[in-house]
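Posting here for the record, re: zinc ion.
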Amino acid sequence: MKTYKVYAISDGTVIDHIPATRALKVIDILGIENEGILTIGIGFSSKKMGKKDIIKIENKYLGKDETDKISLIAPDATINIIKNGTLKEKRRIERPDTYIDIVKCRNPNCITQSTGVKTKFRVVKSSPLTLRCHYCERTVEAGEVEIL
Amino acid sequence: MKFKGQSIISIRDMEKEALLKIIETADAVKRGGHKGCLEGKVVSTAFFEPSTRTRFSFASATQYMGGKVIGFAGTASTSVTKGESLVDTIKTISGYCDVIVIRHPVEGAARLASEAATVPVINAGDGANQHPTQTFLDLFTMSERFRDLSKIRVGFLGDLKYGRTVHSLAYALALFRAPMVFIAPEILSMPGYLLEEIREMGSETRQFEALCDIDVSLDVLYVTRIQKERFGDMQEYERVAGTYRVTPETVRALTEGVRIMHPLPRVDEIDVEVDAMENAIYFEQAHNGIPVRQAILGLVMGTIS
Ligand SMILES: [Zn+2]
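Prediction output follows.
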């Protein structure tokens, strides 16, 4: 039996295969820091990824809309929904068409630099992943993206 | 695309059919159609930075059609440069008029305004981003001389790297899959992402560093200003600006009947002697701003359908 050093949860969401050291960023993007008990594992060995992070969120079932938000920083993450101690759903991250309030616009003269305006980016190209700011229309490649 | 109630923010929101509709409407307006179609309507010009020509053009367009204009220009106050107050200002103005024409130094301001407004918003320039009515009048001017926009070959000359007008017009012509030629010094050449996009849309493109290198015929030469501020070295600027100056000789060396266009104002990139040549159509192009803006105002307010 495979044993994790992080204890198993009987109800909640497990986000696995997060690139190493990005767990805290994932929590930040999901906005779940005050959502009850979180168990964070950083730097597990992974056959696939070398090192990976894992997050377990107790008593909270994250929907697809929510978890897709982390596609920019953890595109290969897997989502496990656990109910009554059994795995109810396993899914992968899918890339949304639009990122709202996730990516920062790099254009210093963009209206989203002023307070109160939520950023909005649309995917205009998938390879390399390219996003266009809904407001100033500048494009940015995923590699250069700055997460809010 | 239905125009009534729609904001006009970016050329990227437009389809070929919508552009053709604007051209067709502007043509009807120029021939004396739709007279008085803005009667009883109030157009608000919210110019957060001064641009006398553009503001006058919209005001004149409105008044010739029987509408009234209210507005302000050149508010430098810091309170309106912040996003939130822009939203508040636009929400307030929405109650005073039937359409808002906005000019703003910050990119994306017009889009944000259109999301806050309860009336259509027309972008009259948002920083270096978009100025769609300029593109419409450019296309309209071309369509008056060449019936089929998919068949004309336009050569763009000058600052193609930073030129908002060039980027929008090239994109619009790409919707027609028109072939294009770009002539600029390497440091001011078309951005790669845009070239790629235009090619993917089906336009054939060629790039040259000098006008005399062109080996294809041109229907239109679209000239833009090379700005001093782009150069660190003034000697380099003088050299480049001199090379790209359009004179009667340059025009004569090009395809016979080539039309010379320019978004104006010009400094000295086109010699004044060219003005008298039949090829020069840039003043006519500027005047076309009136019927084109009348067409847009009528279409978005639903008084022209
Ligand atoms: Zn932006």
